[in-house]
Amino acid sequence: MTAPGKVSEDATPVKKLRVVMAQLDFLVGDIPGNTERVIQAAREAWQEHQADIVVFPELCLTGYPPEDLLLRPSLGIRVSDALEQLKQAKLEPAIVVGAPVRSGGLLFNAALVIEGGVLVGKYFKRCPPNYQVFDEKRYFAAGRNAKVLNIKGVPVGLTVCEDIWADGPVEDAAAAGAQLILNLNASPYDIDKQARRKALLERKAANNNVSIVYVNLMGGQDELVFDGGSMVVDHSGTLAAEVPQFKEGLFPVEFLCEHHCQPVSQLPCPEPSLEANVYNALVIGVRDYVNKNGFKSVVLGLSGGIDSALTLAIAVDALGKERVRAVMMPFRYTSSASLEDAEAQATTMGVQYDVFSIEPMYDVFMKTLEAPFEGTQPDTTEENLQARLRGVLLMSLSNKFGSLVLTTGNKSELAVGYSTLYGDMAGGFDVLKDVPKTLVFRLSRYRNTVAPVIPERVITRPPSAELAPDQKDEDSLPDYDTLDAILHLYVERDYSAEAIVAEGYERADVERVTRLVDINEYKRRQAPIGVRITERGFGKDRRYPITNGWKIGK
């Protein structure tokens, strides 16, 4: 009699085992569609790669994160129907899928193994995360036990995503006799995340003398982007195979299993630059948000500035020029350079391009406001009116033609409130929401190395909102290198103002910037969502009260 969780020592492993990593994009909530995707992928993995096992990402049947769909009363019925469909499909390879499963009155994030039309094993995620963008403890109970089972004669352990970042699950599976760990993931992208994953897997595999197959989700879901980057690390902690990030597909790895399951090493992927990786994340984020939500096209204001120029390039790369419309909305402060550069980029990229002056509308509004404004001096009210008129035009085009409005604000501007509610913040998706201004410049340079589409003058001239004569962003802000460094420490690292000053920054700059961040939370709460690319973006990551008495300082 074998002890619970242990594998019989009489089990004789096969000499070869072919595992296919299914790095695919699933739609949250579309359980029937996701189930069909699993079936088709498993059949293709058998036909094309003679797979013994096909491993899918975490919660692939529901998509990730399903959030409060997990609270719907019919969820269990739909998942049960999906599992029955998978069993009835009688797939040739064993499949490992992720799904929410109820047991003992509790809901678990589960990895399920179906082989020969039979559910042969289930594992409940032991470490549901509850930090940054993760909120799994709202929905899921924590599993308690390791799971090791024979798949095609090989002792295989199961873990799910966060389990591999914690102590216990991998160690327990290895102790229970696993030669191979299959780790199902929905790990969202952020800058340098792949390097942290590799270091972790290499350490876990070497410390536990077990090979690990890490399969990650691909695609965009609201503000999150999942980059794939699936990989295999052998029992010595050596990276044996790595799948390109931001690429869907079925990726086979062959193992020779005797005392260990040793993967046959593959050529390493070329290491992409930071700019290439971030740019790909933004493109995927826009593509999936637009397509999964059924928008025909997008429209954006093209100002002749660098933020809208980069947003246009990303939109065209994500959707194709036929689905992108750019609108220049000049005013008396719009420079000839802005007009020329916007038209040049629109022409180069082949998008529909319109020019609608806001001057007549502005004059009508100011005439209407003449009496209540009598005796006052022009200030940001008049500047904001310009932005709001542009927002009205874009939203009107959106309503009439079914286009999603892409806003163009970057993280630096949103952090300090340099954006206008119901103006340049009006729209459905902010492509650069988590991209600091200094990175906007780097991404623009990068995009022009692929093909020169952003006019050089847009990149080199000082940024300006052009809402007043001779206006420059840095007239009222520290230079962007300084601003972004302070914002990184305050927003992403949670440094206090005093701690930032101790890092060598001017006290006046630090106090001004941190105060602007704090008092503009009410704006960000009303902002459209956008792609998350850092460890801490504005949105699910950072949840500060609008009404509060917290003072900057220590």
From TrEMBL:
Residues the entry annotates as binding ATP: G301, L302, S303, G304, G305, I306, D307, S308, T408
Family under the similarity heading: Belongs to the NAD synthetase family. In the C-terminal section; belongs to the NAD synthetase family.
PANTHER family: GLUTAMINE-DEPENDENT NAD(+) SYNTHETASE, NH 3 /GLUTAMINE-DEPENDENT NAD + SYNTHETASE
Class of enzymatic activity (EC top level): ligase
The CN hydrolase domain, residue ranges: 17-257
Positions contributing to L-glutamine binding: Y131, S187, K193
GO biological process: NAD+ biosynthetic process
Pathway named in the protein's UniProt entry: Cofactor biosynthesis; NAD(+) biosynthesis; NAD(+) from deamido-NAD(+) (L-Gln route): step 1/1
GO CC entries: cytoplasm
Keywords: ATP-binding, Ligase, NAD, Nucleotide-binding
Organism listed in the record: Marinobacter litoralis
InterPro entries xref list: C-N_Hydrolase, C-N_Hydrolase_sf, Gln-dep_NAD_synthase, NAD/GMP_synthase, NAD_synthase, Rossmann-like_a/b/a_fold
Pfam families tied to this protein: CN_hydrolase, NAD_synthase
GO molecular function: ATP binding; glutaminase activity; NAD+ synthase (glutamine-hydrolyzing) activity; NAD+ synthase activity
Taxonomic placement: Bacteria, Pseudomonadati, Pseudomonadota, Gammaproteobacteria, Pseudomonadales
Enzyme Commission number, as recorded: 6.3.5.1
Full protein name: Glutamine-dependent NAD(+) synthetase
Superkingdom field: Bacteria
Positions contributing to deamido-NAD(+) binding: N384, E413, K523
Record's catalysed reaction(s): deamido-NAD(+) + L-glutamine + ATP + H2O = L-glutamate + AMP + diphosphate + NAD(+) + H(+)
HAMAP family recorded: NadE_glutamine_dep
Active site: E58 (proton acceptor), K125 (for glutaminase activity), C161 (nucleophile)
Function of the molecule: Catalyzes the ATP-dependent amidation of deamido-NAD to form NAD. Uses L-glutamine as a nitrogen source.
